[in-house]
Amino acid sequence: xxxxxxxxxxxxxxxxxxxxxxxxxxxxxxxxxxxxxxxxxxxxxxxxxxxxxxxxxxxxxxxxxxxxxxxxxxxxxxxxxxxxxxxxxxxxxxxxxxxxxxxxxxxxxxxxxxxxxxxxxxxxxxxxxxxxxxxxxxxxxxxxxxxxxxxxxxxxxxxxxxxxxxxxxxxxxxxxxxxxxxxxxxxxxxxxxxxxxxxxxxxxxxxxxxxxxxxxxxxxxxxxxxxxxxxxxxxxxxxxxxxxxxxxxxxxxxxxxxxxxxxxxxxxxxxxxxxxxxxxxxxxxxxxxxxxxxxxxxxxxxxxxxxxxxxxxxxxxxxxxxxxxxxxxxxxxxxxxx
Length: 338
Prior knowledge:
mainly beta, 9-stranded antiparallel β-sheet, 4-stranded antiparallel β-sheet, 2 helices, globular
C-alpha cells in the first residue's frame, strides 16, 4: 500500500509505502549422508516474509530571493522473518565462518540471516537475559552450546539530505543514522582482550570481580544447581581474554552509527563566461564522503566503524574478521556539456 502527496504548491512532498511480501519455494541446500555419493541436495522449500515501511518527506521552505533549500528525509524499516525452511530441518547455514558453526542462518521464527554461534553459560541457558555463571576461578564460562547470538538486520535507517542553492552555488550534505543491527567483530575482541587500546589503559594486574554474574553453590533437593552472587576475584588479563574469546557471543556488539555521509560544494559557471567557448554548461564540484561517524556502542579508543564486512559477495552479513578500516574519500569533478 502506498500514499503519495504534493502539498502547498509543491513545497511539501510525501511518499509513504508499506509492504508485506511473502516469498515461497526459495532454494535451500540440504546436507546429505556422504554414503549416498553426494554431500548435499537442493530443494525449493523455504518461506520468508519481508514486512516494512518506507517514508520519504520532501520539504522546500519558502526563502527570500534566489536562495533555495531542498530537504529530503527518508526512513526505512524492514523485518525479514523466516517462516519455514524444510520439514525436519531446524536451521540452514547461509554463510559459515571458521568451520565451527559460527555464521548466518535461516531459522524458522527468527530474522533472516540470524547470527548463530557458541554462548556463555547462564542460570537459564534458554534465556539470554539471565545471569552469567562463572567458573571456579571467577571467569565467565562457555556453555558448550550454540544459539542465536545476534541479529545483523538494523532496526531502521534514516537519512537527512540537504541541498542549499544560491544562484550558481550549491552546498549539500547528508546525515545518516542506522539504529541497531549486530556485528561480530574479531577486531574489537582482539584489541580489548589483549589490552591494545586506550580503553584498556589500566593496571591489568589489579584483581577484579566479573560483573553481572553468579557462581554455583551446590544443588537443591531435586538436583538443580543453586546460585549465589559472584565474589571470586580474578586476574584482569585472563578475564578480559576469556570474556571476549571463550564464546562467540563475547564478540557481538550493537552496530548503531551516526554518520556524516557526504558533503559537497558545487559551482556552475555563468553562461556569459561560456559564450565564446564550445561548452553550453560547466560545473565544478568538490565533495567528501564518510567524513565523520560515531558508533556509540563501541569503545572510544578503537575508533571502530561498523560499516565494514568480511563476508564478501553473498547473503552473509554482520561479521568482521579484522577487516581493513574504512576511509574518508575526497573528490573533485569537472562537468562540461557541449
